[in-house]
Design brief:
The chain has about 120 residues and is mainly β. It has a four-stranded antiparallel β-sheet with strand order 1-2-3-8, with no helix packed on it. The two termini are about 15 Å apart.
Length: about 120
C-alpha cells in the first residue's frame, strides 16, 4: 500500500495517535501504516484537530479515504506572526459507523516540506 486512498476496503483493528505527530493504523492483516512527517529544521507539521471518533473506524471496512490540502486558512483561524509558508492537509476516513477528519497544519520558512507522508511502519 503506497497511497492513503488505498485504505478503502481495508478493515482497521487499531489506531494510535502519537502526540499529534503521527497516527499509526493497524490493519486486520497485522500490517501497520502511519501518517507522519519527518521533522526538520525551520518547520513544524502536526495534527491540530481530529473531528469525529477514531473508534468509528475500527472493525468495519473503510468506505472512504481521501486526502485534501490547501494553502488557505480556515475561517476564524488566527495565523501566527512571521510564517512564510504553510499548508493545511485534511485526511478523511469513513465507515458505516461514522467519519473522521484529521486536520494537519504545516508551516516553514518556505524551503522545507510541510507535507504529511503515508507509509508502512518501519
Amino acid at each position: 500500500m503506497e497511497k492513503f486512498e488505498e485504505l478503502v476496503g481495508v478493515t482497521l483493528t487499531n489506531i494510535v495517535n502519537l502526540e499529534n505527530l503521527e497516527l499509526v493504523f493497524t490493519l486486520d492483516t497485522g500490517d501497520r501504516y502511519r501518517l507522519y512527517h519527518d521533522q526538520d529544521c525551520c518547520e513544524s507539521v502536526q495534527i491540530v484537530d481530529i473531528s469525529g471518533d477514531l473508534d468509528d473506524l475500527i472493525g468495519q471496512p473503510i468506505l472512504m479515504a481521501e486526502e485534501v490540502s490547501n494553502d488557505k486558512d480556515p475561517p476564524g483561524y488566527e495565523p501566527e506572526p512571521y510564517r512564510e509558508s504553510f499548508t493545511w492537509t485534511f485526511y478523511k476516513l469513513a465507515t458505516n459507523k461514522g467519519g473522521v477528519t484529521v486536520r494537519w497544519y504545516g508551516r516553514s520558512n518556505g524551503y522545507y516540506s510541510e507535507s504529511v507522508d503515508f507509509g508502512p511502519v518501519p
